Every structure is written in structure tokens, then in C-alpha cells.
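Closing statement on the flavin-adenine dinucleotide sub-project.
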Amino acid sequence: MQKANSDFDVIVMGGGPGGSSAAAILAEHGRKVLILEKETFPRFCIGESLVTETYWPFQRLGVLGHMRKSDYPRKYSVQFVSASGKESQPFYFYKTNPHESSITWQVPRAKFDEMLLDNAASKGAQVRQGVLVKDVLFEEGKATSVVVQEGEETETLRAEVVVDSTGRNALLAKRLNLRRPDPFLKKAAIFAHFKNAHRGPGIDEGATLIIYSRENQAWFWYIPLPEVVSVGVVSSPSILFEGREKNPEKTLMEEIAMCPAVSERLENATLASAVNVLSDFSYRSSQMAGPGWILVGDAYGFLDPIYSSGVLLAMVSGIWAADAIHEGLEIGDVSGRQLGKFEPKFVGGMNAFRKLVYAFYSPSFNFGRFIKAHPHHLKNLVDILVGDVFKEEVHNIFKDMKEFVDLPDEDWTVQRMTS
Ligand SMILES: Cc1cc2nc3c(=O)[nH]c(=O)nc-3n(C[C@H](O)[C@H](O)[C@H](O)COP(=O)(O)OP(=O)(O)OC[C@H]3O[C@@H](n4cnc5c(N)ncnc54)[C@H](O)[C@@H]3O)c2cc1C
């Protein structure tokens, strides 16, 4: 129950996939929940390709019907294209698991995020858009309220629990100095949408292409969306920015021109959006939850764009946080230990993805060669790539993979939840 002196059971800061998933489940549990979102939706966000395991959060949230009816391209596969233009066989997910959950979608995030936010509202969450959260206030170490600004007006709203789902802004993680950059993954991305870009035939129309460039020191994503294709280049900031004028559009066009497999696909295409730049996006918080607060989605951490894991991890952490918060409110325990009780399982899944990210960026590592040497690991490898990462057995693969590639420490952020 909401306490007499609180305005809400839960305040959710940020209405992206993490926040709206948490709010939808809390509202379903009968909780009085408020989402505070600084933008007015629909708003652009990067992160347009999904992994197939996102099916299960969609099912839990009751939005599968919406996804099935949408015009979002169906993603049946991922295909790798070498720097010289040689295409791998597309990897069709349904071939290893012939079930509807093995086909996913490429999502224009403005529409997709708005759908998830509307879904939370339809379940009873209150939503305020165009409202900036400025700060979280604490009393005796417990988060108790948030300071919000709408236009010229500032107000303070109280809640039993505050969820930080502010994405890369990571309001609370920064305020509490919990954010740790990944020691190795220091990448940057430049990206935009293009009209009249090439699309594959039949079921390959919605395939994600990963195209290597610059002798494997850079790679492109090529993600077909309704009407446009999302194209982005990822590499180290030194490769993308050093010795170049600060002109993202020019840099993106130069990178495209250097990569025939991309430039051929964009031969008749025109730029259909602003060109955006993001860098230093790989980080994690040293703590997921504390008294009266919890971090979900990118506010907790983000790995890397390569395996399209961000939306899945945001939705899963939002849903698991909502269940832990509801249970905590039922039993009168909103300690960090209660709210973040799923942290070890969640972090285990994130770590599995992270090790494969390291393998991807290791020049000497080759997934094909590894599976040839250890064919029995194929299932675990596929499980990780589709996002079925929250189970012990997927980690079996890393004992043998260590012989092929340096893998990162599990607990690089050092501190884990205690209070
Ligand atoms: C280059 C790049 C490519 C990516 N590609 C993919 C991909 O292909 N597939 C994939 O799954 N993921 C991808 N991601 C990751 C994906 O973008 C994120 O993981 C995902 O959006 C996280 O969802 P979220 O809800 O945590 O945060 P967000 O989606 O960022 O939502 C946070 C919300 O909080 C709001 N907000 C922020 N601050 C405040 C405040 N102070 N007050 C109120 N509201 C606030 C924001 O306006 C925003 O709406 C990519 C990321 C990068 C950097």
C-alpha cells in the first residue's frame, strides 16, 4: 500500500522501454505509479533491431498482438558481410528453434516506444510527458522524492520507490557516482536513416546486416525499417574523429564511401534524417539498487550495439524490477537487497553477452573456427546471440572459449549490492 505521506507507490523516471515495462507491470499489480518523461512522444531513439527473446517480455506486457499487426519488418536472420563484400549465409533463428518467438522485428523506436508507453497508460500508469526530473531526494539514506520541472514550474513528488530508467542520462547512477566505464569497450557510432536503400528479397528483407569495414577495425549496422534503412558505423573514436573536421554527416558519408558493401546498397539512397553521433556508451553501475531506488535498462548499464541486446535488457530489467518492487511493498521491505534481488541473475546474462562482445572485437578470434573445434557449444552460442542468456548453462561455453580469446573479468565494477 502507498503510505499516507507519499503521492505515489512508485515514480518511474524516463518512459523508454525500461521505464514503460516497469510501469506497466506495477500498474497491473495494482500499484499507483507515475512515469515522468522529459520528451513528448513520439521521439527518436537509437536501438532499432531486436533479439528474438524479446518475444517473452512482449508476451508478459500483452503487446504481442500489436507487434504482429504492425508494419515493422520481420527479422528472420542476421547476416555478416566481410570487408571485401563476401556475404555469409544468413543465420535464420527459426532453424534452431521452429517457434513464433524465433522471428522478431526491426522497430522504428519513435512509434515502438510510444506504443509501450501507451500500453503502460492503458494498464493504469499515470504518464506525464515534457517533464524533466531534476533530482532525487533522500531522507536518512532512503530515496523519498523527486524534483521535477515542467516549463517554469518546479515541484517535489513523493514515492515509496523511485525507478531510474532515464537511459544513458542515468540520472541517479551519476548522482550517486556509481557509473563505471567499460575498461576496453571505448567505441563511438555515427548513424542516420536513408530512403530508397537496397532491401534483400523475401524473408531476407528484414535481415540485420553486420558489415565489416576498414580491415575489421570498423563495422556497419544495416537495419531495414518501414520506408527507411538505418545505417550506422561503429569504431574507436580515434578512427572516426581524429584528424577530421567536426562534421558527422561528412564523416558518415566518407566511411560509407570506404566500404563498397554499404555504398553499393546506398547507391540510389538519400539521407532521410539528421546524422547522430554517440560515444563512450559502454558502462555499468557498481550497484543496481539501494533503499527506495533501483536502476533499470541503460540507466544501469549498456554493453555495445553489436548484438542488439539493449531493448531486451531494458525490458527484462524493468519487468523484474517491477515484480521485486511490488513484492517489497507487500512485505514492507524496500531495501536495495529486496529491490535488486534479481541482480545476480540479470548480471549473469549481461556478462554472457559482454564476453561475446569482447570476442567480436578481438581481431584473432573467429566464431566459425571456435565452433568447428567445439561443435557441442553451438547451442549455447545461439542461445546467447538470441538473448536466452539468463541461465547457468550458457556460461559453459566460456571455459573453452578462453583458449581462443582473452575474456573480461566478471565483476569489473567491483562493488555489488549489499544494503
Ligand atoms: C549506437 C547504439 C546503437 C544501438 N542499437 C541497438 C539495437 O540495434 N538494438 C537494441 O536493442 N538496442 C540498441 N541500442 C541500445 C538501446 O538504445 C538502449 O539499450 C535502449 O533504448 C534502453 O532503453 P531504456 O528504456 O533504458 O532507455 P531509453 O530508451 O534511452 O529511454 C530513456 C528515457 O528517459 C528519458 N529521460 C532521460 N532523462 C530524463 C529526465 N531527467 N527526466 C525525465 N525523463 C528523462 C528520455 O527522454 C528517454 O525517453 C543501441 C545503443 C547505441 C548507443
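The first helix runs from residue 17 to 28. With this model delivered, the sub-project is considered complete and its resources will be redirected to Aim 3.
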